[in-house]
Amino acid sequence: MNNKDVLIAAALLAGKENAAAYLSGKQPLDAETGKADAEFLLFALRLALMEISERKCAPEREESVVSGGFIAYNSLTKRPIKILTVNGEKVPPSAHVEGFLAPVGTVTVKYRYFPEASEDGELDLPQGVNPNAVVYYVAAECAARDRMQDRAAYLNEKYERALFSTSGNRKGVTMPERGWRA
């Protein structure tokens, strides 16, 4: 499933036919509204990917990088959230804002990253995440923006179910136990 499919499905769920027509390349009844709604849907898609990356597990990537003893984050292909390993060994937390320490030479870096969304790109989700969860999230954001609170609540509930339906990971669903305070 690519990003455009997600945006069109979310537009139809949220009742944004002009945006769906605009994204499909058809002539919408109101082109200006269709374009504005499509831009908001893309913004909501980016929010959905960030939310899923934080609540579930962000996608992982492994790549080879030439190191001079220090690797800048911006030298990696994707925008990293967390560096997992360098040459198969865990990386200690670093106080460097721009990068991390690594052995000199060509190293293999494994990291988690924030997926990025463009209108024409492929949907980049962590393994085990149902793509319908993204559709529901984007549609819920659109409904909330239009002050359709009942519709937004319904779509958000569907998002929650879809997000945790494909895997047994219930992270973020259970509340920690709280004791009575005297």
Question: Can you give keywords for this protein?
Answer:
single chain; 182 residues; alpha+beta; four-stranded antiparallel sheet; 5 helices
What report would you give on this structure?
This protein is α+β, with helices and mostly antiparallel strands. Helix content is 42%, strand content 20%. It is built from 5 helices and 4 strands. The chain has a 4-stranded antiparallel β-sheet with strand order 1-4-2-3, with no helix packed on it. Strand 2 and strand 3 form a beta hairpin. Helix 1 crosses helix 4, helix 2 crosses helix 3 and helix 3 packs across helix 4. The chain is elongated and about 60 Å long. It starts with a helix and ends in a 17-residue tail after the last helix. The mean pLDDT is 83.
Helix content: 40-55%
Q: What is the beta-strand fraction?
A: 15-25%
SS elements, strand count: 4
Summed up, the helix count is 5
Poorly predicted runs of 5 or more residues: none
Short description:
This protein is α+β, with helices and mostly antiparallel strands and 182 residues long.
Protein topology:
Layout: H1 3-13, H2 17-24, H3 31-55, E1 60-72, E2 80-86, E3 89-90, E4 99-113, H4 131-145, H5 149-165
Antiparallel strand pairs: 1-4, 2-3, 2-4
Helix pairs in contact: 1-2, 1-3, 1-4, 2-3, 3-4, 4-5
